[in-house]
Amino acid sequence: MRNKTFALFALSALMLTLVVGAISAAIVLTPNSQILSIEQGTSTSFTFTINNTASDSSVYDTFTSQVLGLTGFTGNVSVGILPTSLNAGITSSIITVTVTVPLSQSVGVYTGTISVDADGIPTNPNSQTIDLSVTITPTTLPSDVFSCITTHDALAPNLKDNLDVSIDDITVDEGFGGEDNDNEWFPLDTITVDVDIDNNGPKDIDNVALGWGLYDKTSQKWVIDDEESDFDLNDDDTESKSLTFKLDEDVDEFDSSHEYVFYAWANGEDNEAVDPALDATCDYASQDVEMQIEEFVILDNVQYPDAAQCTEEVTITGDVWNLDDNDQDDVYVLVTNVALGLKEQRMEVGDIDSLENTPFEFMFKVPEGLDEKTYPIMFDVYDDHDDVYENSFNEESSFMVPLTVKGSCGASAGSATVSATLESGGKAGEAMVVKTTVTNKGTKTATFTVNAAGYSAWASGASVSEDSFTLEAGKSKDVSITLQTKDDAKGEQTLNVEVLSGSELVMTQPVSVMVQGSSAGFLSAITGNAVGDGKSLWIIGALNVLLVFAIIVIAIRFFLRR
User: Which CATH superfamily is 297-404 part of?
Assistant: First the structure.
């Protein structure tokens, strides 16, 4: 009797456990509702969480889901993979739901329910739901592309896959975009897009028209749009097109917050179709583009002569563009080419409004005596803090104009002579000034540049009073070279006076100087630290001293005899 009672008690406890387990079995979906807004022809995703709040997970070994409702919706709702089980005690699993809307889906609001069931016990299933609301908004596709997909595909579904349009490559040919990614463009960049059009069908396609353009999805306007000439495409053939364009239209309407897309689409006709109304086929390709609008000022449309003669007046023109969405103040340009006599010559530009431009004109005279070759002239654009403009790709706003000089140029190697004399100084640790005379021995006016070299052993630096100048034939020019002698310098020293005509070294003239050290004697002071032919001057100085000494001796003897 006791065993029977114990058995009945154990059975009752087991049944109670199962009942409690079944009653406690529960799942919770979070959130329990979802509101979406999706554009025609696009898709979006969201997630929800399944939580197991039961104490016994063994009853949750099978999960199923279904989408209910969404009446009139022809798209696709895909629920991610559900777990096969969940551990007990509020253990969760994250599920992704993707909603895809075709272009043909009508604009409107569609509602339905996502249901998730946990079927561990057939007599006690557990189910939770998520209320789903989907608002379909009009597409932002341009009408040409929208028509390509909806109209032609609807008329000739059997031809819809015959044409295949793809964007093969995008290159920034000129400008500042494309440093890290060819889909990053600056206004005024020149872009090339390579497009392939394939005929994948069994028949020829005639009158294929390729349209293309850059579209602003935010404002729903074309920035640039164009069309290529029609062509025929045989079965299983490919036509490749390179589309080159410059982003110089409506520059002031560019906005970095807008979405830009490059589209290419092709329409064709199958003339063998039984019904001419069903002969259309079309396809398109697209590429998102990031427009770079930032604090950056550049030069554009720079115009200069193909070639210029010596002594000719040259004019270089162009536009200075502000590519920022803020105004820029006190902009200026430094123009540099030493051989042409341009040493950071400043060209004032002034204030430029956002995404606007101002023209510039720079004029200079080509010096005589230049080598006939191409000279790079650098134009560097500076802001009001005296810094060269730099974009986010660490590219500076610097531009090179290659000016070719030929004709009416004189001065060649060996057309100048140089002489040098000490003008002042000569003591160690002090400044020494050497006067250099350059004479143009050529038959034409020439431009010369003077430079000091070969002095580093005894002088710490050298500066030239006028390092570049123009001389008529037979004329001379005095130029002072100031050297800072070192404290430990002494005795005879040398430097080289280099003379260039244009960019060509005319001659190098060695010059000897005498540096008086800190313990220099009487003899050095008498000779005056001669410059030039130093040894002969030392001999002359010594003879002068001997001559003075002889005169003194003779005078003494004369007075003693009297």
Answer: Immunoglobulins (2.60.40.10)
Q: Pinpoint the alpha helices (H) of 301-379.
A: none
User: What's the CATH fold of domain 25-137?
Assistant: Immunoglobulin-like (2.60.40)
Q: Is it the case that residue 181 has pLDDT exceeding 90?
A: no
Specify which residues 130 forms β-bridges with: 114
436 and 478 Cβ atoms separated by less than 8 Å: yes
99-149 pLDDT, tens per residue?
888 877 889 999 888 888 876 554 455 778 889 999 998 888 898 888 777
Strands (E), 251-312: 260-269, 280-291, 297-303
- Cβ atoms 36, 99 nearer than 8 A: yes
List the domain boundaries for the chain: 25-137, 143-291, 297-404, 416-542
SS3 content of the chain, % helix, strand, coil (to 5): 15, 50, 35
CA distance 425 to 482: 10
Which CATH number describes the domain made up of 416-542? 2.60.40.10
Nearest to 392 by CA among 172, 190, 180, 188: 180
Is pTM beyond 0.90 here?
A: no
CA angle, residues 111, 117, 123, in degrees to nearest 5: 130
Tokens found for residue 272: 């063998």
Rg over CA atoms, the chain: 44
Pick from 34-48, 325-339, 542-556: least confident: 542-556
